[in-house]
Amino acid sequence: MRDVSIAPISLAPGQAPRYGGDPVRDAWLLHFMTENNLDHAIAPEKNASPEQLRFMVSLAPEEIYVPCSDEMFSHLISERADPLVVAEYDSRLARIGRLIDAYVPDAYTAVKIRSLCELKYRQAMTRPTLIPSRLAKRLCTIFLTQSGLDDPYRERKRACNRRAFAFIQSEAFRTMLYACPADLPGCRAIPELRFALDMLELRRLLLLGSMPGIWDGSGALPGREALDAAMNALPADFARLEALLDPRRSGGGLKILFLPDTAGGVLFDLLAVRTLLRLGHRVIVALKDGFYYEAPTAWDPDGDPILDAALSGAHFLNDSRVTKNELLRIMRENPLTVISDGTRERLNLYRVSVTFARAWKEADLVLARGRLNHRRLIQTSHLFTRDVACFYAEEAGGLRLDFKPRAPSARSFTEADITAKAEEIIASMRAAKAAGKSVMFYSAVIGSIPGQTKTAIELVTTFVAHLREKLPGTCIINPAEHFEEGMDADDLMFMWEKVQRSGLIDVWRFQSHYDIEKSFGLLGRGVPPVWAGKDATFSTGCTKEMHIALSMQARQPEMQIIGPDPEKFFRRREYGVGKFCDAGIDCR
Questions:
Q1: Is residue 142 located within the same domain as residue 32?
Q2: Average of pLDDT values for 213-235?
Q3: What are 95-122's pLDDT values in tens digits?
Q4: How many whole angstroms separate alpha carbon 551 and alpha carbon 53?
Q5: pLDDT value at position 142?
Q6: pLDDT bucket at 192, cuts 50 / 70 / 90
Q7: Domain region containing 483
Q8: 271 CB-near residues (< 8 Å, 6+ apart)
């Protein structure tokens, strides 16, 4: 076997890692991804697909998303016992050690857990390519499974919330939050003054939520002077955030995904959320799915009456794989929605739930508190599909806020945009029926065969042209003719469902293997092996459409369904998240 020298790779500052150009470099990156258990191909049940990841991160071809700061990645790729990496590993092990000391009274169990964690630590130290937060996740999982505890910090978090709530009820808090500014901002109209006062309240709440002395038990409560001093040192990026939040500029309100940080501070975050709601915005608050130290979880309100009251009126969405249609409906009906991010670790976009990924994609702004979120979202060369604002407390006091605009290449189709396209198609169908034509909808394989999307579009376009010649009295809707660059499968399914449920379809034809063979014949080509025997049942999108077709036929018995037997569709799983290729047959 040829000897291959595998040297550590290097990246220029601000350069995102990507595959291509150097096989050894590609091997190292694959090694890094698999060592951190982040590769979708190896663990698809745990990690987001590339398509789901693109809901949140703007990735160039072959670019890899790395869930850590650029600084940390530059140290990890050295594959040496870098002092910074060692210090991070040591701090994770020490934190687990403190958990064991505090919450595992049985000596035998404590020694077993500590020894197992040390073995995992030593394994990571052998070739330090493991992201420190991934090591922390592994150690925390060992602790939780071996100790039998589900949330050792439950009482600690409740105490933080109690102390924060007590401060919120105090006269000192009301004075600090609601005192008039020394100089009222000059304004030409009442709405300007109203917005300026709302922003003043929001700034004060974000500042107070960054002062842990209020809830950590130290009794270091801030005074009015400290708050005023911090207000005078607000970061420049806050003006960009204010401009974005102004409902007069945002056309009636934004959809905001809010990521809190810790217990105690979350109560100030939720007061800030109420201010955002008053401005007309809609907010989704994402909590952790399980124990992650002081971070509030989706289950905390069940046993914490203070947090439960702070979330009064919120809609709790417990479905981890909600569809785009359902998510948009919930957001329309509920100004405040609470979801789980699907993880119990630091923000890791590979491991977040489908619901979180869709919430990110549908949001106009991601607003995140905390230094750890700042490292993952701001201190990285990756650009995201949505505007991101991150804020946290400076060690010297005051608030730091950094704003990262969405990637220039990230195109967003709003619900109104997609609905307008659907209404345009529906209007053409209605006009056809008024002219005495029948309406046929043609469902076909488009992207369910990897690498064959271009061919699939060519086949369906050719066959629909053939049908239009044979059926001049029929208006045939060909979905391939209405694709717009930048639309993903979520956008398309949302649009087509509106069209399909319009009640205007007379014949719904699903692509058969005969249609495919005829299409290749019309093109003067033989059927390639990859297309042999294929039909609409090989498309997970068509499977979803068959469900819709049957539900519409139940309402309109005169509507005809032509094509493969519906039963053949239902071996399929739900269509993939934001992807055109097949989710695969579930053989269980």
A1: yes
A2: 75
A3: 999 999 999 999 999 999 999 999 999 9
A4: 32
A5: 93
A6: confident
A7: 415-571
A8: 168, 205, 310
Calpha distance 416→20 (Å, rounded): 39
476 Cβ partners below 8 Å, 6+ apart? 440, 441, 442, 464, 467, 468
Say yes or no: 442 and 365 in one domain. no
Instruction: For 453-517, give the DSSP string.
Output: HHHHHHHHHHHHHHHHHH-TTEEEE-GGGG--TT--HHHHHHHHHHHHTSS--SEEEE--HHHHH
282-287 and 255-259 as β-strands: parallel, antiparallel, unpaired? parallel
Residues 234, 324 within the same domain: yes
Question: What mean pLDDT, rounded, does the chain reach?
Answer: 86
pTM of the model: 0.77
Q: Are 353 and 342 in contact (CB under 8 A)?
A: yes
**How many Cα atoms are found within 13 Å in the side-chain-facing hemisphere of 486?**
12
165 within 8 A of 306, measured Cβ to Cβ: yes
Of the listed ranges 256-270, 481-495, 503-517, the least confidently predicted one is 481-495
For 573-582, b where at least 16 C-beta lie within 10 A, e where not — what string?
Answer: eebbbbbbbb
Torsion sign across C-alpha atoms 177, 178, 182, 187? positive
CA distances from 107 to 100, 103, 151, 191, 431 (A): 10, 11, 20, 64, 79
d(CA 441, CA 543): 15
| pLDDT bracket for residue 251 (50, 70, 90) | low
584: its two tokens: 């695969």
104 and 225 both lie in a single domain? no
pLDDT at position 580: 43
DSSP state of 165: H
- Measured CA to CA, the distance from residue 96 to residue 528 in angstroms comes to 57
| Same-domain status, 238 and 307 | yes
β-sheet bridge partners, residue 384 = 57
Beta bridge partners of 402: 390
Distance between CA atoms of residues 459 and 447, nearest Å: 12
The answer to whether the beta carbons of residues 460 and 444 sit under 8 Å apart is yes
- Tens-digit pLDDT profile for residues 52-76: 898 899 888 888 899 988 888 888 8
pLDDT at 355: 94
Q: Encoding tokens for residue 139? A: 């150690």
Is 578 inside a domain boundary?
A: no
